[in-house]
Amino acid sequence: MAASLPPAPIAATLARARNLVRPRFVRTQMNGGRMVFGNVTAGITICTAWALESRFDLVRLVYGNDQATGIAIDGVSAAVSAKLNDGINPVDSAGAARAFTRFTFNNAGADGAWPSPSGSANTLAATATTADALNPAFTFTDWVQLASLDRADAGETLPLLFTRTYRVAAGRENKRSTTYAADWNTAAVNLGRIRKSAYRLGDQTGGAVVTTGFTTDSGVYSPCFVQYYSRGPGATVLCIGDSYTEGLTTRADARSWGHIACAQLSTAGFPISCFNGGFSGQTSAAYHTRGKTLIEAIKPEICFIALWSPNDGSPTTALVDAAWGRAMALAHRVRELGGIPILTGPLPLIPAAGASSQAARDEMMARLRAAQDAQLWVDHGATVGDGATPVKLAAAFDSGDGGHPNEAGHAALAAPTVAAIRKALGL
Fold it and tell me: Maximum CA pair distance of the chain?
C-alpha cells in the first residue's frame, strides 16, 4: 500500500511538535558584542566579574583561540560573590572575603560532560588551535561545583561569578569592550553581562591571592564565555550571521535584534541567554563555517541562521544553492543536538544591488515559504524594507550607509524574532 500524508490538522500538529524546543538547564553566557580577538601581555592575570542570568551550581569556563599555535593556560580559578564589591575580590553577604576555587583541565581541554575526569591538572600546555583565523577553536575547563550566592547589594539580582586567568606567555583573548549599552545594565533586564574586568602582573589564581594592585581594563576579559547549569530551565539563543546579526552601528554593537528580543523575554524564572554569533564583513560561507563551531560548543536550544549576506557579492544560482545547502546542514545539526533552528531571510539589499540580488532574495524567500510547515523562519527583510522592488532599507531604519539597520531598525527586527522564539518555546 502506498504511504499517504496525514490529514491537514494532524500535519499541522506534527509541524508544531517538530519546532518545539525542550528547555534545558545548561546556559552559555558571553559578552554583549561579537568575539574579536587580540594580543594579551605575558605574565598577567585577568580578573572578570560576570553577572549571570540565573542561580547555578556547576560551572566551566571556555577559552577561544584564533591562531594556528596553541596557547598555554597556567592558572584558572573562580569564586562566587554576594556583592559586586570592587569587581575583583568576591565577598559574602556580610562582606567577608570568599576564596577562589582552582579549575582543572583533566579532560585535556576537550568538551566533556559532567562529571569531569578526576585529577589535578591545573594548567594546560596548549589550547585548541585553528587553521582559519575567522573560525576560532575552543578549549574547555572541567566542570566544577560552585554554588551561586543570593545578591546582597541593593537592587541587584543576577548571581555573580568572578573568574581569574593567568598565562606566563603572551596570549590571545576576546578584546571586545566589556561595556554594555547603559540600558542593558539595569535590574529590570535579565540578561547576563560583564560588570568589570581588570588585570595584574603575576599569578593571582590560587594560593596567597593578592587583592590589590589591579588595573581596570574594559577592553579585555577572560574567558571567552562561561557555561553553567542553572537551577531552573531556560534557553540559550545563538544568532549566526554577518554585521546585520552582530548589530553593527548600534551602541557598543550590543543593541542587536537578538539581544533586544532575548532581553524582552528573559526572566529570573526562565532565563533566555543571547549568544551573538554575528561577524562583520564575512560571507555566508565564512559565518556558516564559524557557526558550525559555535553550534558544537554551545548546543543552543534555539539557533537563528542567516541564509545569505550582501558580502557574498553578486549572487548566482550556484551561490544561492550553496548557501541554502549550508544553512540546511546547520539546521539539521542544531536539531540533532536537541535544539530548534530558525532561518532568517535576507535583509533588504544594499543600494547598489541589482536585479540578480533581488532574484536571489526572492528565491530564498520562496524556499522558506515552501518549507514553512517543517521549518521555522522569519522574514527580517519585510520588517525593515521599504516595500519597493528591489527592496531597500526603509529610511526610518537606515543607519546612514544604506546597508545596515540603525537602532530603530534592530528594535523593529526584534518583534518577529520574539514571535519566533515564543513559537519555538510554545509560549
Answer: 79
